[in-house]
Specification:
The complex is a heterodimer of chains A (431) and B (276). With 431 residues, chain A is an alpha/beta fold. In chain A, helix 8 packs across helix 9 and helix 8 crosses helix 17. In chain A, 55% of the residues are buried. With 276 residues, chain B is mostly helical. In chain B, helix 3 crosses helix 12. The longest helix of chain B is centred in the N-terminal third of the chain and has 33 residues. The radius of gyration of chain B is 23 Å and the shape is globular. The chains are: A alpha/beta (431), B mainly alpha (276). At the A-B interface, helix 2, helix 10 and helix 17 of A face helix 6, helix 11 and helix 12 of B.
Chain lengths: 431, 276
């Protein structure tokens, strides 16, 4: 359910689409306006958001209501679409996932007039590009995320293995350690766990394999469907060979939290996950505390190391009654000062590269040094070009990949079918 | 009464059917245009839809059959007089009382191939050589989900049938005992025919429920095509893809299929009764 964010992935259907008003600031100074902002509410997220908002309120005198939304990204998108579709002015500032600018662009104001170029150029170029739709800056980067490879340092040392640089190396090392550990009586040991349930998370994982093999990004920037190529086939064939060998068959129903459950209970050598898993794997009650390493994902045979871009942005609704004031709040919350505070207090990864060299940040969260390369080079899913059809493209893609992993179809055949279906969906690449 | 019914049931239904005939989308609901039966034509050509229909039918038939058999057995057992009967009756209701989302997630963990308790027990007993990925493997996923539904809903079935059993006239049983009729024969000749109306109602309740199954499947395996039910399909179109028109068409078809099956079932039940 969760793609690029912190926190457990329990079914949050139970919480439903209920909006809960978390905070209301009562007394209003004269001339002050009232805004509302939607923040995520996973772990410390909501209180960090409230603190940031309060600091702005104190500065400007405007009051802000913080609205908490469903934790599941899918449910949250559905809620936003309903609120915005009804042209409601209830929420002025919205926290949106990195794959939503294309889908929701029409509902947001252009932030370019409110953010000067110097400020904008502080942020990761990939994210700013991702948030720019048809020349309009529809959202400001707030915090970022990207796929990482987590490994068991103690097991690699025990079997004299180096952290793998390529997927082939990972396959070999994982098989060797898994076999040796099982022979030693550790029957549950798995080589590699990742997210292969049929959902957005599989799109992220599979895009990393395909792109790192040189197989591009499903749909290219011009809208052409590129997924049916030999590199993509090779990448998926390799991934399919993992199932039942170095990965349990159960990964076919694993999301982030299920794979973290296996890794953190000490039953896997490698795990692909988002940075949030780091803090939890190193928490006091974690059985593998102190034995975990994290690094960029492996490369393909002659491709780059690829991470899928995650993270969250702030956008201003075009139905807001006070767009200028809302834009000012967004400018404040996404500023270097506020991102630094969030990085130190909540390990939320900044979207400003300079903060990765900041002494205070590195002292509080040393692993940001290791994350930086993955963040800086992360690859975006093709959500900008496919716009409102992205969720369909993603669903077609992960269903095809799932078929390949489950051994129902060879990759070559599955990608050919996928390509045909995407051609039809996009009316020949015109989207 | 009719006005109330028209407002709470008729209006949403009519609107869904109408939306199914348009190309409405979640992002631009006001720009919807009438497109006739295009959505339905496209729907009937979609192999994923037919996959969802067959998944739903398999799920409904297998789960309702098992629930009826098990529920009847439990109801007969609970109908006997023994100490602690009241406590036992309350206890069997526990699976039914747990919210589906919670029990689905609980079973998901129990089914887990690495840390799941089910594999642990089966391997420990020597019934399995190695752990099975129950909810992940395409060959077992639907079965695994169906069994959770059986676990959850059998108590409901048992309770409905128990109520039916307690309504049965005692004198039939008394005269059967006086005549020395074999208990199995009593069951087939007295209990089952008398219980029939309660059984028909209980099965129709469960069948309607099972045909529109959503929460259990969505929590346990998401939008996986191998296990997707008709309702999961309709939701994916409506919410994930924001395709209000096409999703409404799917929802309309779900309604039509359930109505049709219910009609067939009720007709069959009536014909069966006239035969006896």
């Amino acid at each position: 359910m969760i793609f690029s964010r912190q926190g457990p992935a329990l079914p949050r259907l139970a919480y439903g689409l209920i909006l809960t008003t978390a905070l209301a600031v009562p007394s209003l100074p004269a001339g002050a306006e009232s805004l509302s902002i939607s923040c995520g509410a996973v772990g410390i997220e909501l209180s960090l958001c409230q603190q940031g908002v309060e600091a702005w309120s104190k500065q400007t005198g405007h009051s802000v209501k913080v609205v908490s939304t469903p934790n599941s990204a899918t449910e949250r998108l559905a809620l936003y679409q309903q609120i915005l579709g009804a042209r409601s002015a209830d929420i002025d500032v919205l926290q949106i996932d990195v794959i939503w600018p294309g889908t929701l662009a029409a509902y947001f104001i252009d932030l370019k007039p409110y953010v000067d170029d110097a400020t904008l150029s502080q942020h990761f170029g990939t994210v700013v590009k991702n948030n720019t739709v048809d020349g309009r800056l529809v959202a400001m980067p707030w915090f970022t995320s990207a796929g990482m490879l987590f490994y068991r340092q103690d097991l690699l040392t025990k079997y004299a293995a180096e952290p793998p640089q390529t997927w082939e190396e990972l396959t070999v090392i994982a098989r060797r350690i898994q076999q040796a550990e099982r022979n030693a009586g550790n029957a549950r040991m798995q080589g590699f766990v990742f997210q292969a349930k049929g959902y957005e998370g599989l799109t992220c994982d599979a895009l990393e394999w395909v792109h790192s093999f040189g197989g591009q990004t499903i749909v290219n920037a011009a809208g052409e469907i590129t997924i049916n190529n030999p590199q993509a086939v090779a990448a998926l064939d390799l991934a399919a060979s993992w199932i039942g060998e170095i990965a349990p068959e159960g990964v076919l129903n694993y999301d982030e939290e299920a794979s973290r459950g296996v890794f953190q209970s000490g039953n896997a050598v490698f795990m692909r996950n988002w940075p949030y898993a780091w803090a939890l794997a190193q928490a006091d009650d974690s059985p593998i505390r102190g034995n975990v390493g994290v690094m960029p994902l492996p490369r393909g045979p002659d491709g780059p190391s690829t991470s899928t871009l995650g993270g969250w942005q702030l956008a201003v609704s075009r139905y807001s009654r006070h767009p200028e004031i809302a834009a000012d709040l967004v400018r404040f919350l996404t500023s270097a000062k506020e991102q630094k505070r969030r990085a130190i207090q909540g390990t939320y990864a900044p979207t400003i590269p300079a903060l990765y060299k900041d002494a205070d940040v590195l002292e509080a969260v040393p692993q940001f040094g290791a994350f930086y390369d993955s963040f800086a080079t992360a690859v975006a899913r093709p959500s900008r070009i496919t716009g409102p059809k992205y969720s369909r493209v993603s669903a077609e893609f992960y269903a095809s990949v799932h078929d390949v992993l489950a051994g129902k179809q060879p990759a070559a055949q599955s990608l050919e079918t996928l390509s045909r279906r995407l051609e039809r969906l996009s009316r020949g690449g015109r989207w | 009464m009719l006005t109330v019914l028209a407002m709470v049931a008729g209006w949403p239904l009519a609107r869904t059917i109408w939306l199914g005939l348009t190309d409405a989308s979640l992002s631009t609901p006001e720009a919807a245009e009438f497109i006739g039966l295009d959505n339905f034509r496209y729907l009937l050509q979609d192999p994923d839809w037919w996959r969802a229909v067959s998944n739903t039918l398999v799920f409904a038939v297998v789960s309702v059959t098992l629930e009826t058999l098990l529920g009847l057995g439990i109801a007969l057992a609970l109908n006997a007089h023994f100490r602690g009967r009241g406590a036992l009756r309350a206890a069997i209701l526990i699976p039914w009382a747990i919210p589906t989302v919670v029990s689905a997630q609980m079973w998901n963990w129990m089914y887990n191939d690495v840390f799941g308790v089910l594999n642990h027990i089966l391997v420990g007993m020597g019934l399995l050589n190695e752990p099975q990925a129950w909810t992940a493997s395409p060959s077992t996923a639907l079965l695994a989900i169906t069994l959770v539904d059986v676990w959850k809903t059998t108590p409901f079935m048992a309770l409905l049938l128990l109520a039916g059993l307690q309504m049965l006239p005692r004198d039939c049983y008394d005269s059967a005992r006086v005549d020395g009729v074999h208990p199995l024969r009593v069951f087939w000749r007295v209990t089952l025919p008398l219980l029939r109306p309660a059984l028909v109602v209980a099965v129709i309740f469960r069948l309607l429920d099972a045909l529109r199954v959503f929460d259990l499947i969505y929590v346990m395996s998401g939008n996986n095509r191998d296990t997707m039910s008709m309702s999961v399909y309709a939701r994916q179109q409506l919410v994930d893809f924001g395709d209000t028109g096409y999703g409404s068409a799917a929802a309309t078809l779900v309604f039509a299929i359930i109505a049709l099956l219910t009609a067939i079932y009720l007709t069959a039940a009536r014909v069966g009764r006239e035969d006896t």
